[in-house]
Amino acid sequence: MREALFVKQNAEKWKNYEQLQTNNPDELAERFIEITNDLAYAKTFYPKSKTTSYLNGIASLLHQAIYKNKKEDANRFTRFWKLDLPLLFFKYRRQLLYSLIFFTLSMAIGILSAKYDDTFLRLILGDSYVNMTNENIAKGDPFGVYKEYNEFGMFLMIASNNIWVTLVTIVSGIFLSIGPVFAMMRNGIMLGAFEYYFFSKGLGAQSILVIWIHGTLEILSIIVAGGAGLVLGHGLLFPKTYTRMAAFRHGAKDAAKIALGISPIILLAAFFESFITRHTEMPVWLSISILASSLGFMVWYVIIYPMQLAKRTQYN
Known about the structure:
The chain contains 12 helices and no strands. By secondary structure, the protein is mainly alpha-helical. The radius of gyration is 24 Å and the shape is elongated.
């Protein structure tokens, strides 16, 4: 890359690093990593240029600032949930949107496939599950599957499985983002076929009131995990001015933060499925309240609040 183009692509960022002061240790560390990456690139291709000297000066300033603010922030835990994670959601909003699109399209494929192919449902959900659910419907308890196990044992089983699925979805981004796309397609098709099955039995509204008590948080967390997987793959596919390894490390760090951030939501979804969903006789107003609260929280925390926060902090 020509030096002029390199400077043009990064000049605004460097200027902001010089002018916009921050005492946030994570922000300082991130700036220092980016500047040192740019400095390494400049030293390699323009070793005697003014650009290299300029970047070396910024790197020195950031290095001093890091050690000046080395004292541990007592509110670091709070800051992560209040600032760091929401800003990551905003930073990678395109990846989250792509994940949602892949999932939604796949869900539509699952619905249409189950509608026009009688064998598709059993292929996706399995004969044993379909037969068991048919028997429960005949008994007048279509969602009896959620009552078969002890609450605590069910919670451990579901929580561990969902955490594992989430981690696999994110880590699979290392395969040039193909893994998360496949995961969104697989889960979307399964959900589409699953919901069509209950709607075809005249149990659509009831399935939403019962299953989506936990499904709202669970499915939306899976979509966020898909976005985090795309973040991981993005560094490998589009390193920009960084080395591919440096871009990958940066993406992996942010993807890990997102994985950590959605873990409590996944655990809460497992709690709902194990302890609350089994109460299929609960009042409609209570079920709707849980659904609306879960959906409202996810939309606010992943979309609305990050946008407001980014606007206040002039983050882009």
